[in-house]
DNA sequence: CGGTACATGTACCGTGTGGTACATGCAGCC
DNA sequence: GGCTGCATGTACCACACGGTACATGTACCG
């Protein structure tokens, strides 16, 4: 902080804001593939073609970089959600099936793994991950409750049902990632649909 | 490996097997409180009153120590499960409620957090955690399926129902740990019971 | 051309790590 | 007593890490 002054973090939109965003994007890719646990500035820098000095330059510290990585990867999840909401004219069951199929797309596996890794580290108290805990449930609950209500459920039970559905999806996702048993997990999910939406 | 020879790992039951077990037990306690992520031999040693040299002495390497810690903490989970199965003469719903209440006992929160942290790191590929993935689902599925079958469900759907129940519990546990909203999560669980066992 | 500001690289530093070498204590046994 | 074997501690090593100091480019502006 004495002589050079290193621009550091500067909101968004500066001429090097692009570079920052680009670096963070590459970092999220790398982290989705290799995890957040043993991340080092040197390793990351080498992987995305930049010296570790540059990462410090643009992000100030490893922690701040991690914060942005976590935030960005969260944003990707949210993008997925909003993409799913824009699907009108299908029955709730089919919408849910569609959602489930998208979530279990093998191409997303790395992203899901990262999600649960960050979740775990946040639960353990890793500072740069902790803030996500606030939104981890509520962000998803909100649209799910809305969907339930528009489907005719009364608001009180709609909340419970939404919360239950979210938990079940996450639990079965954990199962799928651990066992890889797509068929078995899908069958369990179908059972849930039967209980949830009634047979048929 | 050249001169001293350091007894290292020796199955079980040697006269220092006790010391090993005692160290691993203390280590699990420490890890349940502080997590597995930033564990260092020095920090752990200081916490449980032993020099980091001793940990190497008894376990050979940090990785092997971690393996035993993970295994032991898994064993604790399994102990909980078997304690729960020895509860005859109660209806399935009430047994499930009992199980749920025990799992959500705040005293167990640290252990649960550790569970999900290890789960997350195993998904990410941390070598000493990966082996748990095999049993993470099947170990619980087996008794749950048995319970379903003795309750009269046909084996095929019993498997699906058990898998679904396990996932739901884990998903709601994740929710609870993240939000701390005991009331809301309990309500969602009650909703699940209603769907699962029928109203009543 | 000169100069100012920024992007990037290289070299370095202090620290904490896992692991090793070696010394010391302490028990049992001849 | 003296020896042998194990438990424990102290001191050390090499290494990788995050972070810093400083130099070098490189573009734009006068």
Q: Would you mind describing this structure in some detail?
A:
Two copies of one chain form a homodimer. The first copy, chain A, is mostly helical and 200 residues long. The first copy, chain A, has two domains: 1-60, Arc Repressor Mutant, subunit A, CATH 1.10.10; 67-197, Tetracycline Repressor, domain 2 (Orthogonal Bundle), CATH 1.10.357. In chain A, 73% of the residues lie in helices and 0% in strands. The first copy, chain A, has helices at 17-34, 41-48, 52-59, 62-85, 92-103, 109-124, 132-150, 155-179, 182-197. The model of chain A is unreliable at 1-15 (pLDDT under 50). At the A-B interface, helix 6, helix 7, helix 8 and helix 9 of A face helix 6, helix 7, helix 8 and helix 9 of B. The structure holds a DNA duplex (30 and 30 nucleotides). Chains A, B: Residues 17-77 form the HTH tetR-type domain. Chains A, B: InterPro entries: Homeodomain-like_sf, HTH-type_TetR-like_transc_reg, HTH_TetR. Chains A, B: This is TetR/AcrR family transcriptional regulator.
In short:
2 copies of one chain form a homodimer. Helices cover 73% and strands 0% of the residues of chain A.
Keywords, please?
homodimer; 200 residues; mainly alpha; Arc Repressor Mutant, subunit A; Tetracycline Repressor, domain 2; 2 domains; 73% helix; 0% strand; elongated; DNA-binding; TetR/AcrR family transcriptional regulator (chains A, B); DNA-binding (chains A, B); Homeodomain-like_sf (chains A, B); transcription regulation (chains A, B); transcription (chains A, B)
